[in-house]
Amino acid sequence: MRLVAVLVFLLFTFQLFAQEKFTVSGTIKDAQNGEDLIGVTIFVKELPGTGAVTNVYGFYSLTLPKGEYTLQYSYVGYQTIEFKATLNQNIKNNIELSSGSTELDVVEISAEKEDENIRSTEMSVTKIDIKEIESIPVLFGERDVLKTIQLLPGVKSAGEGNAGFFVRGGSADQNLILLDEAPVYNASHLLGFFSVFNSDAIKDLKLYKGGIPAEYGGRLSSVMDIKMKEGNSKKLSAAGGVGLISSKLTIEAPIIKDKSSFIISGRRTYADLFLKLSNNEDQKNTQLYFYDLNLKANYQFSEKDRLFLSGYFGRDNFSFADRFSFTWGNTTATVRWNHLFNDKIFSNTSFIYSNYNYKIDISAAGFTINSKIRDFNFKQDFDFYWNEKNKLKFGANVIHHTFDPGEISSTGEALGDTKIENRYSVESALYLSNEQKFNDKWSATYGLRYSNFTQIGPGEIYTYDEKGDVVDSTKYTENNPIQSYHGIEPRLGVNYILNESTSIKASYNRMYQYLHLLSNSSGNNPTDTWLPSSNNIKPEIADQVALGFFKNFKNNHFEFSVETYYKALQNTIDYRTGAEITLNPTVEGEILTGIGRAYGLEFYLKKRKGNFTGWISYTIARTEVKFDFINKGSWYPAKQDRTHDLSVVAMYSLTERLKLSSTFVFYTGNAVTFPTGKYVIDGQIINLYSSRNGSRMPNYHRLDVGLTLDGKNYKLVTNPDTGEKEKVDRKFQSSWNFSIYNLYARENAYSFTFRPKEEDPVQTEIVQLSLFKIIPSISYNFKF
Amino acid sequence: MKNILSIFILFAFWMLLSCEKVVDLELDKAPQAIVVEALVFDSIGDNYVIISKSKAFNDNTGTFETVSGATVIISDNIGNSYNLSEVFPGVYNSSTLEGVVGRTYFLNINAEGKSITAYSTMPPKINLDSLSYEKNDQPFNDDEQDTYRVFTHFYDAPGVENFYRIKAFSKNVTQKGVLVLNDDLIEGDNVVFPVFQTDFEENDTVTVQLLSIEEVNFRYFNALVSSQDGEVPGNPETNLNGGENIVGYFSANAKSQKTIITTPLP
Q1: H-helix or E-strand containing B223?
Q2: What's the complex ipTM?
Q3: Which residues, numbered 349 to 368 in chain A, qualify as contacts with chain B under a Cβ-Cβ cut-off of 8 Å?
Q4: I need a labelling partner for A767 at 20 to 30 A (CA). Which of A434, A560, B59, B221 fits?
């Protein structure tokens, strides 16, 4: 904590020597729909290198010495606005920016707003432009931000049929996925073929792979921060799509114009509706669908106060006649209050609820299984725009977790009811971070996060011996602390601008993770359960250093970056051989802790402008772990270890209305444990293994192509003033999307089963399961 | 119209269904392991030690190699020692060894220059009271022949930790998998426990053995089953000593056995 004191002191000293200063602040919105614009840059023409960026609520604040300035507000894809300000008092300046697309003449795009990747101290950050993903071909034509982000360097798909992803060698549970600040514990639908994020309701997505700012914590590898749209505060509008297996509709409208608005967005798949037409009774009664609903509303009470309500509700349902049903889903709700204390201090207070559960009902066998994880979460964040050089963020966060690993209730005479006891814990954190511009060349973001995790009662807590057997148990009463962990997490990011198109960045971060996902696959399954740190399981810790080189060339037509990272992991988890991790009350005894290391090199080249756009991303990496009791204590590849990972995305505008796109993906197979031999015990064939994760899945590759045909979305109108023809958007806009997933029908392996042959159990066979061979799809999207 | 509908149904299924096929997959080569399966029971001459070798997973030619000419000695903690003789290739037996509950047995094998040792203490015997059977519901298949599930009835001795292995066989059916259980959920109960996974036919003569086994063997079989099904694959920990590339187990068992005939039920 002494470090914090020094930091604060330093900042105060800066202030003492300052001259008379005033602040210009405000909110920046989209002129068409009133959405807050995140990440708009504000430059001061007279003071190169000085500026501000809007926060996630569209708010900015810039403090400058008294004087006359020209402020330039710019945002990619929007018209730049210049504003002359005479700063002899504090100024409130709310701005609305228009998107450039309505103009016949291409809006001249100034260099400044497009080299944000060079100027920002953020490194290892991936942003997704929601508009850009519309033309990328995807499975079943369902646009998916989570799938798109896996085409970027350092982010790897956990595999087909799996919504999980690996960031820089981290496992799938090391990603913090936030939807309007609420953690989403299982981001997959339909056994991983879709993510829970409906792209029509999403405004902004940012993924931190390294140099993670101090305001985030709780996961080792990455933070994916997803913001939902606020809803159109200007006029009623709608968007929707009809696809082969799903449809969706979004409606947004002002409640009070420019003050309050809402958005409601729903989606449902209906592949199973076709089964209803079957003659077979069982097929008729088979259900396989998901739906989800995003809701958000906001209300501006005053110039200084604004309230947001947002919620997500999604559910998957898979049932087979009345014999078997399996449902799972997330529910999140967030209430946020923005308050401006003055033109320099922006505050946000959030109350967050988040829940994930699954239920399996096997009526045929007469039993049900229920499991859930539930969070109540309070967050207080402050943005303090100290002066033109320093921007401070600080805040606190408390989360109460309830883990309900599973309850089996049986109606039949089977083995009776089993309840795996609930676990409770409180996770809290304090953080302070500062973004500082030293001069034209140097800038840095640095901060500290202090986190604490306390396991609390009630509950019967076991202790285990080295073999994983229960040796003792203690009963704790409600809210009684059982075990506590805490740690300081330093965060640092430094940017050095070599010239206006080149920069070098470096970062370091330490992360603590107090929750562990028990998973028998490398990705996410609906039945995976979260296990809190406890008297037996220590928190996982990661230290990451990263170095990157960023270059834009050909007038920002091209963007290039290369980043390298090294991560050291402590208390990483794996399981004992033969461990049972599903619905096991003494699962903590099955867990081994060890150390890990991950390193890699990421390349990214993107063409941003012209008829031909797209990118190539390539990662070469390694992730290894070491456990005393596995593979005789030697280093071995982690499940998610992948040597090569390549993605190529290409988009080509044939005409103004017709766009072709294609995606190619190649990656090394995951590390897996395959048998090397077989032998006989009790007359049965048993697989012989030689080492954990000693084998590899075959390499994966796939080519997808897509075609987007826009409707006639504008008409030419003669401007009566100038006599020139101008494009005017039609009220109703539409597009058709045709795509083919896995064009050359590669049978990529999903899994291998090693088993005795049915007809001759003395012989064995290897069976490969592949999911999607070649999947064409059509979808129609519209908005008005 | 009907055609279009059926195309849609086909399409929906095509999407839902994945593709499964038998493949050739090159696997890493590993050194051959020696496999030992050694059991002692509480009746005279009822014991056997099977020594064999593993082979490459993809090798489907011929049978598994047996290990002949090994020296196999089982001794106990009160000074008896028995030399087992090879009765079939790779199968060793002593006609005079009679296991006794409570005694510890020591296994000593010398095969192909390797010395393999292990020990096991015979747990108290739990008697199998009776067997029963019932007709299986066939929830997913209505048209197949009726099959029967056999149940064991026994009384779990209270106050002690018991571990069981249930072996079942009949003329027509071999047991699937290995069935072991502990008394965590049945401590001191009158137990009715099914012979899981294995369905018997009509008019089958089914023999079921209830073996009392040691915890270490219970763990071994548990790990053997779960590591095959694959949450965390790997070789189960063995109680055999003798270095690397040795798999299998040594178990002293108290055995109780009954037979039942599955005469058809309505």
Answers
A1: helix B215-229
A2: 0.90
A3: 364
A4: B221
DSSP A149: H
Whether A675 has its CB under 8 Å from any CB of chain B: the answer is yes
Topology classification of domain B34-121: Immunoglobulin-like (2.60.40)
Cα–Cα distance, A497 to A489 (Å, whole number): 27
The fold of A2-114 is Immunoglobulin-like (2.60.40)
- Cβ of residue A564 closer than 8 Å to a chain B Cβ: no
Closest to B37 (Cβ–Cβ): which among A278, A681, A762? A681
Which residue would you say has higher pLDDT here, B233 or B82?
B82
- Mark which residues 115-174 of A lie under 8 Å from B by CB: 140
Name the one residue in this structure whose structure tokens are 């030399």: B83
A429 alpha carbon, distance to own chain's centre: 21
Average pLDDT for B157-167 = 90
Q: For residue A111, what pLDDT is reported?
A: 36
Name the closest residue on chain A to residue B219, using Cα atoms.
Answer: A578
Whether the Cβ atoms of residue A204 and residue A38 lie closer than 8 Å to each other: yes
**Residues A524-546: pLDDT tens digits?**
677 888 999 999 999 999 999 99
Domain B128-234+253-261, CATH among 1.20.140, 2.60.40, 1.20.120, 1.10.4160: 2.60.40
Nearest chain B residue to A747 by CA distance is B19
User: B208 to chain A, minimum CA–CA distance in Å?
Assistant: 15
- A54 contact partners, CB below 8 Å, separation of at least 6: A27, A28, A36, A37, A38, A39, A40, A42, A60
Which chain B residues in 44-63 lie under 8 Å from chain A, judged by CB atoms? 52-58, 60, 63
* A189-240 per-position pLDDT tens digit: 876 777 888 888 888 888 999 889 999 999 999 999 999 998 998 889 999 9
Is it the case that residue A18 has pLDDT exceeding 70? no
pLDDT in tens, B64-116: 999 999 999 999 999 999 999 999 999 999 999 999 999 999 999 999 989 99
- Segments of A301-417 assigned E as strands: 305-320, 324-340, 345-362, 367-385, 390-410
Domain boundaries, chain A: 2-114, 225-706
* Cβ–Cβ < 8 Å for A704, A742: yes
One DSSP character per residue, A242-310 reads EESSEEEEEEEEEEETTTEEEEEEEEEE-GGGGGGG-SSHHHHT-EEEEEEEEEEEEEE-SSSEEEEEE
CA-to-CA distance for A325 and A474, rounded, in angstroms? 37
Strands A481-499 and A442-456: antiparallel
Distances (CA, A) of B249 to A364, A773, B119, B213, B217: 37, 44, 10, 12, 7
Domain boundaries, chain B: 34-121, 128-234+253-261
DSSP bridge pairs for A100: none
Is it the case that residue A483 has pLDDT exceeding 90? yes
Judge whether B109 and B238 are in contact, CB under 8 Å. Answer: no
Answer for the pair A217, A206: CB distance below 8 angstroms, yes or no.
no
pLDDT band at A506 (very low <50, low <70, confident <90, very high): very high
* Of residues B16, B223, B249, nearest to A578 (C-beta): B223
> Which residues of chain B lie closer than 8 angstroms to A673, CB-CB?
232-234
Instruction: Give the residue on B whose Cα is nearest the Cα of A520.
Output: B231
pLDDT tens digits, one per residue of A602-644: 999 999 888 898 999 999 999 999 999 888 899 999 988 999 9
The rounded distance, in Å, linking the Cα atoms of A336 and A298 is 9
User: What's the fold here for domain A225-706?
Assistant: Maltoporin; Chain A (2.40.170)
Q: Is-same-fold flag (B34-121; B128-234+253-261)?
A: yes
pLDDT value at position A275? 65
